[in-house]
Amino acid sequence: MVQSLLVLAPTLLVIAFFLLGPFNWSRHRTWARAVTCALVALIALRYLVWRFTETVLPYPNDGPNFYWVWLVFIVEMLAFSEVALFLILMSRYVDRSVEANRLGQVFFARKPGDLPTVDVFIPTYNEPLDVLERTIVGALALDYPKDKLKVYVLDDGRRDWLRTFCEGRGAFHVTRSDNAHAKAGNMNNGLAVSSGDFIAVFDADFVPYRNFLRRTLPFFSDETIGIVQTPQHFFNIDPVQSNLGLENVWPDEQRLFFDEIAPSRDGWDVSFCCGSCSIARRKAIDAIGGFPTESITEDLLTTLSMLNKGYKTRYLNERLSMGLAAENLTGYFVQRERWCQGGIQTLYLHNGPLRGPGLSLFQRIMFLPMSWLVQYLVRFTVLVVPIAYLWFGALPLHFTDVGDYLSHQVPVLAAYFLLMLWLTPTRYLPLVSTAVGTFSTFRMLPTVLSSLVRPFGKPFKVTPKGSGNEASAFDAYTFTWIAGFIVVTALGLLINIVPETAHTRGSFSTIAAFWSGLNIVVLVIASLICFEKPRRLLQAFKLDEAVEVDGAAGRLVSLSLDKAVVAVPTETRFRSTRVLLNLEGFAPLEADLKQVTQRRGDITRSGDKRRYYVHLHFDLRGFERDKMIIKLYTGRYSREVPDIDKIAVSVSLLLRAFGRTRVAS
């Protein structure tokens, strides 16, 4: 009993600290973050000292296993370096909304004629009209004096139909003779034909909210600010949410960065431009010679180049735009492989973190692409270590006993997971987050290695989005890797359970068995992401507004550009399937009544049906469609998941895993 308490004591102390301290503190207070992150760092350092002095140095040079022990330890050291940078970063937090309010009162107190001019750049290559129209219409609807605002659609696809659309809406359609330097070259061409004091950039699939300029422009009262970046929010379900069946209970995959990490980076003055949903000072862009073309991630390099010239990037953590997340796994990996390769490219450039002039040592360290370089190698190693032991008896460390191992490693894991749950309470669950990272490893690790060897070997590739990108698919490549690891791990367990075939002995076998079982669970969840679901081209927003359908009162509960769902009392009767829908601000819309449904929550215990839902389909054209775009996409609605429903996540994953297993069998 006493021995057990001694083994568990460090972990119990960690849990007690979080229960008595951080979980009762505001996670946005810098002192609370600093104290908590420092404690986690000390616990991790305690583990590393134990690993080096007790489990690495004592290991004799007895052949291949000696080098395996050192390899695993080096990977752990890399992981610790990434965690250390993360802890330093997250020990601060800044919310600039109050500052935006204060600066805005002064900035917009001037006469409209004295306001600066703004050019909106919408770089595009192959996006279809159903993607582009939202961005163009939304940009033209920005709340800013029209004589001070110009919208430039920078078309590297040189499409006549897009020119016609722009001319009909009042946007400038700009082309060039070639596509040199991809997006960066396209925007530099835009600089040559425009003259605004500030440049707002929105990718072809992002729609600015009407108040975007009113919230961001005031920060430029400080002449040292070169860029203001805002978060990227999405009006569709990303493939991870969709394929795991968690679209209503799990936030999109990028929320952790934009909601939590980016504000912390800003607290250290190492925020960076993420391309879309940003606005830059033209004077600062001119100072660096235009948008950098040396890297396929021109946004990150723009920040680094501006830092070299003394300009800073600010981050305003407010939802001021909405866009399309990658709609399927193909787009998901095209996007992330581009980010990864671009981040690694900066290591080789004259204006990157290693060689860029004017950067402080802290800035150089914080702009190293450590996450790309380390995380996938670590995740791959976590999968391989128990397999190497179960199949070949290769110990990853000089093992003392289970108690010693648990008293040093478990406190580290507990401290890190509790820290993440405190810092990001609505964005993180250990098991699901680990599974998502593991899923990405099999494609991203080769990208990391190839980018290190040939950083400029792959050209810029546009993320496919919009119509023509709807087909569901199956990621056979990743699934094969995952299935292979599951089979090899499970067979390794079975071989060593049966006494006649077992070839591992000693107390590490218990650790290896638990480790292997956890890996299998993580891999099973990761495998679910490989099965793509079909998607809707035009996403619907949930809302609750009063409407009329053929004069009958109802509640509008869902609306998209081509469909509305209206809840009406069960006694409502319609004379035809062709009805009139009356929405506030619109002329009566002619719609087809195609479906009537019932929801379980609208049937009482006695069986009485209180209301049903009519599904109305319509086809808006011209400026009526533009009005609907402005209504839906410029700030009134969102599809955010405000919090993680932990029970719902667990149930959904179990059902998905069980259902997929039944299909496979």
Describe the protein's architecture and organization.
The chain is α+β, with helices and mostly antiparallel strands and 665 residues long. The protein is built from 21 helices and 15 strands. The strands form 3 sheets. A 7-stranded mixed β-sheet has the order 3-2-1-4-7-6-8, sandwiched between helices. Strands 10-11-12-15-14-13 form a 6-stranded antiparallel β-barrel. It has a two-stranded antiparallel sheet with strand order 5-9. Helix 13 crosses helix 17 (430-453). The two termini are 46 Å apart. InterPro entries: Glyco_trans_2-like, Glycosyltr_2/OpgH_subfam, Nucleotide-diphossugar_trans. This is Glycosyltransferase. Residues 120-288 form the Glycosyltransferase 2-like domain.
Give a concise summary:
The protein is 49% helix and 13% strand. It has helices spanning 2-20, 30-56, 64-90, 97-107, 129-140, 160-169, 182-193, 212-216, 239-244, 255-267, 282-287, 298-308, 329-345, 361-366, 370-392, 402-423, 430-453, 476-497, 508-528, 622-633, 646-664; strands spanning 118-124, 149-155, 172-174, 198-201, 206-208, 225-229, 278-281, 312-315, 321-323, 541-549, 552-559, 563-569, 578-582, 589-597, 611-617. The strands form 3 sheets. Strands 3-2-1-4-7-6-8 form a 7-stranded mixed beta sheet, with helices on both faces. Strands 10-11-12-15-14-13 form a 6-stranded antiparallel beta barrel.
